């Protein structure tokens, strides 16, 4: 069974985000970019499944401009067997990503698709769900534990939901999206970085896959959240009540 | 670390230089001993009162006075009580960094850093404070305010007295303001955590790194297997980057440059070559800032891990590179099973942090360590205090690293400064450090 893992190149999680002065987006110039942390966790899980003998190959997929190859290389250095880069210069929203993934699935025919639950730049949390819908495959999102059964061809997934943990049993092929506690991703070791240099990255375009990219979403404005105002010390209970009534309007 | 306890009855926190001056003038007139104090992160008891000295803590003097980024490096002028980490955050927004970085940055203050000539993790790249401090303002024992707060890169007009204050641990005066050169913050930072089988490989790796990574090398730290085991055992949120075993030596290499792709390729090529030539047994390269922080956490967390492990005898030595680990091995033989000998440090600067970790403080163990460690260092013309300073701990040991003539001149100079000042009848506490040397 092949596992396909979709990974996204985003602004590094530890970077302080700055909004561009024209409010069209965030500053990405000279800013450290890395693999989306949830994608890293998804890839780690796929690698562990392969290492346990339940999968034959892990394929890393990423979409975007040329720089995305850096992130793909990290995926290969972690241990993915090969990769696909879908070259597209602009921004891709979840539905477009899902459509491209669907086209790739029809070529590669994996038994499992792994994604991060969401990207830390747009926080959409949609791609996994959309591709499951397009393929009509079962989905286990926010996975905190995944156990595969080769004989029964199922995946038992523990999901982190608001009320606690929900356990689902999915028939393969299926879509799983990774949540934080699924695993702790490995570091890229020097021997693996060396091996990664000879691994194949296949380059395709959306046209090659016969997918038309048209977005029905347009980002109008990006602003910083309002700065937290400093607290105020009140001098008496009367003043407190006055402020609660007339300023905060909660009484 | 709980090693030194004073019995001071009074701590003063002046808010500005004028108040420092008044305090010192008063104490001087009444012959009251004082001890200057900053973030209290010193490791040689330099900021702890010996008896009941008045503590003068500059922690409330924490204003940033100016920042000029017109010059290639920025120039920051600030008060002595500014916490290093706060200065780093402030400069971060401006696109600059402090030229020094240490594990204690969350508490240590710049006045103390300057007074002790703090070294830290980036000395390899940015040099010592003697190079990056452009000026300072200090208050002498009789309250005289010495304004040497220049912001000029070059000023050859007479003796550059600020250099005497840098590293004199408050014995000549209390530093109240600092003007410091701040390098630009470069965007491409890469970090690798490597395992070496023996110390010779570590040395060769350092020489290779200086040659091949020269311009972008920004840190080269080492720790041995005992250090790694200690950290994994006592520090939270730490995991072995190269499981499952513990290797003999670990090296942390950091590069800082302005071209991400070029630097990463350069570092990767260097590392792969090192693996091929057998210098490096294995290693990992951080793929994001989080991973980079976790590597640093291992190295920076060692002092904390040592504290949690029990009692610790700390030694900070400069030694010739080839001999450095010989001391560690001989110390292990000396001490035997009574305690663990843990070694780590700024290999790139030839600076060893030798730590003996015992379940409790025990004079028998101390007797095995001292004077052995000082004599060994002296024999190899090393320094018994590379960056921690003398303080209370090592004042009497200065003769292990400085000739009697040199020490004599220090004392003469010191008296000279005090004699020349009007109304200096008494001495401040750290001044007595110099006197301790005399008695040794």
From TrEMBL, chain A:
Domain Electron transfer flavoprotein alpha/beta-subunit N-terminal stretches: 23-213
Highest taxon, organism lineage: Eukaryota
UniProt-listed Pfam families: ETF
UniProt key word Electron transport: yes
Keyword tags: Electron transport, Mitochondrion, Transport
Function: The electron transfer flavoprotein serves as a specific electron acceptor for several dehydrogenases, including five acyl-CoA dehydrogenases, glutaryl-CoA and sarcosine dehydrogenase. It transfers the electrons to the main mitochondrial respiratory chain via ETF-ubiquinone oxidoreductase (ETF dehydrogenase).
The protein's assembly and partners: Heterodimer of an alpha and a beta subunit.
Name the UniProt record assigns to this protein: Electron transfer flavoprotein subunit beta
Organism of derivation: Coffea arabica
Organism lineage: Eukaryota, Viridiplantae, Streptophyta, Embryophyta, Tracheophyta
Automatic annotation (TrEMBL), chain B:
Gene3D superfamilies: 3.30.465.10, 3.30.70.2190, 3.30.70.2740
Cited InterPro entries: FAD-bd_oxidored_4_C (IPR004113), FAD-bd_PCMH (IPR016166), FAD-bd_PCMH-like_sf (IPR036318), FAD-bd_PCMH_sub2 (IPR016169), FAD-linked_Oxase-like_C (IPR016164), FAD-oxidored/transferase_4 (IPR051264), Oxid_FAD_bind_N (IPR006094)
Record-linked PROSITE patterns: FAD_PCMH (PS51387)
Necessary cofactors: FAD
Matches recorded under SUPFAM superfamilies: FAD-binding/transporter-associated domain-like, FAD-linked oxidases, C-terminal domain
Protein keywords: FAD, Flavoprotein, Oxidoreductase
Residue span, FAD-binding PCMH-type domain: 4-185
PANTHER family reported in the protein's UniProt record: D-2-HYDROXYGLUTARATE DEHYDROGENASE, MITOCHONDRIAL
Protein name: D-2-hydroxyglutarate dehydrogenase, mitochondrial-like isoform X6
Gene it is expressed from: LOC113702246
């Amino acid at each position: 069974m092949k596992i396909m893992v979709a990974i996204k190149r985003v602004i590094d999680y530890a970077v302080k985000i700055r909004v561009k002065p024209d409010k069209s987006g965030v500053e990405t110039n000279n800013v450290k970019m890395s693999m989306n942390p949830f994608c890293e966790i998804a890839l780690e899980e796929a690698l562990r499944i392969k290492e346990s003998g339940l999968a034959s190959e892990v394929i890393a997929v990423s979409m975007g401009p040329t720089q995305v190859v850096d992130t793909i290389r990290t995926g290969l250095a972690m241990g993915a067997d090969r990769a696909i880069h879908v070259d597209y210069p602009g921004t891709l929203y979840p539905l477009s990503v899902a459509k491209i993934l669907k086209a790739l699935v029809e070529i590669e025919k994996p038994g499992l698709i792994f994604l991060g639950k969401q990207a830390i730049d747009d926080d959409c949390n949609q791609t996994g769900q959309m591709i499951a819908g397009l393929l009509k495959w079962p989905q286990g999102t926010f996975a905190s534990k995944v156990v595969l059964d080769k004989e029964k061809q199922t995946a038992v997934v523990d999901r982190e939901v608001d009320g606690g943990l929900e356990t689902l049993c999915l028939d393969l092929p299926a879509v799983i999206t990774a949540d934080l506690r699924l695993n702790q991703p490995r570091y890229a070791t020097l021997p693996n970085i060396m091996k990664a240099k000879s691994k194949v990255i296949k380059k395709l375009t959306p046209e090659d896959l016969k997918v038309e990219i048209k977005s029905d979403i347009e980002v109008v404005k990006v602003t910083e959240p309002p700065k937290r105002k400093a607290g105020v010390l009140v001098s008496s209970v009367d003043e407190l009540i006055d402020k609660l009534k007339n300023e905060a309007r909660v009484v | 670390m709980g090693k030194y306890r004073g019995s001071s009855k009074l701590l003063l926190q002046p808010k500005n230089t004028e108040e420092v001056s008044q305090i010192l003038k008063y104490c001087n007139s009444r012959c009251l001993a004082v001890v200057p104090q900053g973030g209290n992160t010193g490791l040689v008891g330099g900021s702890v009162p010996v008896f009941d000295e008045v503590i003068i803590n500059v922690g409330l003097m924490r204003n940033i006075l100016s920042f000029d980024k017109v010059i290639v490096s920025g120039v920051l002028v600030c008060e002595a009580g500014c916490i290093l980490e706060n200065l780093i955050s402030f400069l971060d927004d401006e696109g600059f960094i402090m030229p020094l970085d240490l594990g204690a940055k969350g508490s240590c203050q710049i006045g103390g850093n300057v007074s002790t000539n703090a070294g830290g993790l980036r000395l390899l790249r940015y040099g010592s404070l003697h190079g990056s401090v452009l000026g300072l303002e200090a208050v002498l024992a009789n309250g005289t305010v010495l304004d040497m707060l220049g912001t000029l890169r070059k000023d050859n007009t007479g003796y550059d007295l600020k250099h005497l204050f840098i590293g004199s641990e408050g014995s000549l005066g209390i530093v109240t303001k600092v003007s410091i050169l701040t390098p630009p913050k470069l965007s491409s930072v890469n970090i690798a955590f490597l395992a070496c089988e023996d110390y010779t490989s570590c040395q060769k790796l350092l020489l290779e790194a200086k040659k091949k990574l020269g311009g972008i090398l920004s840190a080269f730290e080492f720790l041995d297997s005992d250090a790694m085991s200690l950290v994994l055992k006592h520090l939270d949120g730490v995991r072995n980057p190269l499981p499952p075993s513990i290797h003999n030596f670990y090296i942390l290499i950091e590069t800082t440059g302005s071209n991400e792709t070029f630097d990463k390729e350069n570092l990767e090529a260097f590392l792969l070559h090192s693996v091929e030539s057998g210098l490096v047994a294995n290693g990992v390269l951080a793929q994001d800032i989080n991973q980079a922080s976790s590597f640093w956490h291992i190295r920076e967390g060692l002092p904390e891990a040592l504290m949690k492990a029990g009692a610790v005898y700390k030694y900070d030595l400069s030694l010739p590179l080839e001999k450095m680990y010989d001391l560690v091995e001989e110390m292990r033989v000396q001490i035997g099973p009574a305690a663990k000998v843990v070694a780590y440090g700024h290999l790139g600067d030839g600076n060893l942090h030798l730590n003996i970790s015992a379940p409790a403080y025990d004079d028998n163990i101390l007797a095995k360590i001292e004077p052995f460690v000082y004599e060994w260092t002296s024999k190899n013309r090393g320094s018994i205090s590379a960056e921690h300073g003398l303080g209370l701990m090592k004042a009497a040991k200065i003769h292990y690293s400085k000739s009697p003539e040199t020490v004599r001149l220090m004392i003469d100079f010191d008296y000279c400064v005090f004699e020349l000042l009007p109304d200096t009848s008494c001495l401040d506490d750290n001044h007595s450090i110099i006197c301790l040397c005399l008695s040794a």
